[in-house]
Q: What sequence folds into this?
């Protein structure tokens, strides 16, 4: 049946299109235009062509920020997705007594990021920190260190905090997916003598593979958007050991007021994130993830 008013569907989607245009499309076009210029925010805009992009590939700090970001992604994939999956497995094995564990693991997700960053800064403190105090009480004084001030441990220390926060988030996602697996498949495996961990890794994990792939995509894109945790805990230090793309981008724009160069850096980051997302989606499509049926 044809609608009596042919323009009515366009009228319904018009608000969403307008919001998308003003919030996403127009700023993206303006940012791309600015990436080809030099501008401090107060002087006249000068067109410099591709100079900002050439400068980015010569910028050692920017390249280091990319390296740190990819290391951070690898660490968070383990500390968030893998740990979240294992927590979901443990919670499902706990039977009916799961409410306490689900709430306990999910609570860090609900806390403000700034509060978490300050709290863990005290935990990592050299003098009064919980970790160094525990090591000294155990007679392991040689292992104490300034966790956030040592270039060898700073990035790992911040990544552990990120894992502490989001492992519970991914646990909730995986737990919901595990509940959708038909009970008769689990019962058949148990009757054949399979242990709980064998059932988990051989039946449950393969059957929630599409959800795991979505979690990996969310984790990677989320790592590219990370900022507040690094800014509060280390501000990119020591010696740029925890400098990631977003912290360096903010420094370029707000500290050095180099808006044209910052626009080029953000454009490159957008292209990299979109490329990674497309590759992951393509791999997921080729892997036939959508063919799994319960």
A:
């Amino acid at each position: 049946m044809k609608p009596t008013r042919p323009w009515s569907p366009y009228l319904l989607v018009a608000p969403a299109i307008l919001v998308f245009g003003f919030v996403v499309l127009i700023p993206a076009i303006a940012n791309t235009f600015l990436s080809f210029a030099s501008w401090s925010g107060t002087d006249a805009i000068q067109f410099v062509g591709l100079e900002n992009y050439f400068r980015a590939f010569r910028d050692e700090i920017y390249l280091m920020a990319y390296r740190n970001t990819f290391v951070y992604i690898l660490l968070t994939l383990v500390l968030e997705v893998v740990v979240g999956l294992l927590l979901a497995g443990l919670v499902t094995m706990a039977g009916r007594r799961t409410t306490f564990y689900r709430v306990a693991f999910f609570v860090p997700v609900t806390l403000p990021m700034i509060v978490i960053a300050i709290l863990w800064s005290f935990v990592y403190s050299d003098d009064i920190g919980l970790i160094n105090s525990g090591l000294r009480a155990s007679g392991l004084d040689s292992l104490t260190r300034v966790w956030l001030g040592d270039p060898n441990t700073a990035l790992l220390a911040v990544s552990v905090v990120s894992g502490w926060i989001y492992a519970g988030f991914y646990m909730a996602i995986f737990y919901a997916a595990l509940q959708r697996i038909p009970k008769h498949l689990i019962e058949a495996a148990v009757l054949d003598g399979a242990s709980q961990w064998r059932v988990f890794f051989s039946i449950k994990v393969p059957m929630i593979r599409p959800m795991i792939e979505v979690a990996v995509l969310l984790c990677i894109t989320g790592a590219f958007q990370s900022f507040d945790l690094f800014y509060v805990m280390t501000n990119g230090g020591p010696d740029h050991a925890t400098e990631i793309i977003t912290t360096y981008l903010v420094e370029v724009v707000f500290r050095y007021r180099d808006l044209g160069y910052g626009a080029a850096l953000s454009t490159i980051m957008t292209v990299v994130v979109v490329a990674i997302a497309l590759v992951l989606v393509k791999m997921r499509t080729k892997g036939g993830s959508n063919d799994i049926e319960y």
